[in-house]
Each structure stands twice: as structure tokens, then as C-alpha cells.
Amino acid sequence: MFHGLSRRTLNALIIGCLLIITYLNLSTTPDEDTPLEPLTLAPLPETGWHLWYSREGVPVYWQSNAEDSLRIAVQGDEDVSFKTRVNGQDWATALKARLMNSDSDFAAGIALQGPLSETELKQAASYLISTLQLTPPPKGMSECRQQHPVGALWWNREQGKSTVSDVDLPASALSTGDAQAAIQPAMQTQGLPGRDAWQAFRSGEAKRLRREWLSPAAIDIAADLAYHRWPENDLNHLYQTLATAQRDAPHAFALCQRAATNSVTRSSE
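RE: above sequence
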């Protein structure tokens, strides 16, 4: 069909086709700011963990199960913590003996897991609170963390922290002045993820949360959740939000945290 065309015309057609193919490839290749498609995440299964606040205001996560032992995790400020396991049938006597020489009078959250009813687990928690003279943790989850949970998680992971630890931003991200000018250098220093890296972060963290929440270590996570005073359904909310969070989430959290810090500074002046 091309026999009647000159060599120059054929070359022009070939070059034109190559240009069209190149254009189509470039126009369909996403750049770094193209939103990622939502992840398909199965809901977290119901684990039976529940949040309860004692009359003293101490948060307690509890879970009834079919094990023989009552497992206890008390998470306090800094390095203060207490973990033990006692016989589920004679837990009161065993717990009394176990607490005789324990530290007391500190802020803490509690996680309990064992073959007891809700009433019995609350009784065990009340005994722990009374004997150890526990007080409520000083603060709960910040508004910025509630608004930007995945952004907060990213900053924590960059600093090697757990899911529920308090978020510490670099000083440059909390300095005074223009918000964008202050945050951008910190973001560049931290090495904010590209599009592919953010996709891997979302997927990896969703798998990690699911695996940890279903593992025997869940009692430690529950104690951390209690100490940091996370609302009952917020871990599930974080898990679901990972499906749609975009790579600007760390930036959004940093801007929110900076505004909150500057507001506190101004009110104290």
C-alpha cells in the first residue's frame, strides 16, 4: 500500500508515528503528583477489644478470651511499665502476691486479656489502679493526629517509632514564619516519599497493622493505645485511611502541627 510513496514521505510517516507513540506514552505515565488509586483492604476482623475508663479516668483496654491465664500489661510514662501473667481461676490472690513489690504512683494505661467476664476484668483493672495508685495519662490524641492519621504515622516510622507513639517533628518544621517555607526544608531533609514509595508505604503499613493486631503482641499494642488515649475505633480508622491517603499526608500533618504549636506559643505570651 506504500509503493506509490517516496522515501521522504515514508520517513515522514515513520517519524510522525514515533512522535505520536512517544506522546501517548508520556501522557499516560503518571507524574509524582498524580493521585494513587485506593487500595482494596479487607476490614479488620472483630477482635473483642473494648475500651473502658475507670472512675479515676485511667483508660483500660480489655478482651475476654479462652486462655487459661490472665495477661496484664500496664504502660506508663517513659520506661515505667509492668507486665505479668496470672492464673485465670485464682487471679485475685495471684495478682495480689505479684503486685507486692511493684512500683506505684504513675500515669498509665492498662490492657487486660483473659478468660474472665467483662465485670471481672474491670474488677481486676480497678484493683491494679488502686494498688499501683495509677493516674490518667496527661493527654489524649491530638487534633492534628485525628485529622491526618497517616501523615502522623509516616513521621513516626521515619523516626523508628511505634504506631501510637507521640509524634516529634523536626524543629525546623515547627519554627515561626511562613508555613510553607518552614516545612519544606524539613520535608526535604526527611526525604518525603515519591509516588511509588508512598504506594509501598501504604500497602506495607496496612499489612503490618493487620498482622500486629491479630498477633499475641496485640496486648502490648492495646496497652500503648490505652496510655496514649486513642479512641476505641481509631486504629481501625487509621487502617482504613491508609487505603486512600496520598503522598501529601505527611506535609498536611506537619502544617497542622506547626499551626497548633504556634497557637499554643501565642496564647502563653
